[in-house]
Amino acid sequence: MAEYAADLLSPAQVRRDGVFAPEAVEHLVRKVRSGRPLGVKDDMALVKMMEHHYADRLRYAVAGTANLLEHDQGFFVKHGDGAADVKPIAHLYKSQVYQLAAYLGVPEEIRSRRPTTDTYPLEQSQEEFYFGLSLEQTDLCLYARDHDLSPEVAAEAVGLTPEQVARAYRSIDAKRAAARYLHEPAVLIEPCRWEVR
Length: 197
Prior knowledge:
By secondary structure, the chain is mainly α. It has a domain at 1-59. It is built from ten helices and no strands. Residues 8-20 have low confidence and may be disordered.
């Protein structure tokens, strides 16, 4: 999605009061327009720092973009794309996000774009990279697991065998267990002795 953002953002549009360093914005826009992927450690961290700097300075909130599937299964970086003040779609299945996008009039070009990890230059989908099933099947398996449906009952709706659904359930449970720490708040070594007024 970065290429769509680059078309909307130009250094001339950036406030000149020091909210962003114009050189950083110019660097990111040039890189995206050149077709080179944003790097995991340098560019994405810079984007997050700029978002939070701008939000803090102007008393805005940073909105997260993880949907239920990504949030539940830990498909985010805790202090990267998971760093947000509000997560408005973390309760929506990915299929619901697409429906909402259509309802809100998001251009078809964006809605029909194949989801990618946007972190590595390899041509691979989120399914291939992380989930192992189509996003539709993963949404359905997650729903079925959350509603205690047996693999036999869910199999027909998902288009898989009961054994494949059972394997998907094990994968969902394993990812939830592995990602549990991502949902934990920071631990204070000693309680704060001040109050917000």
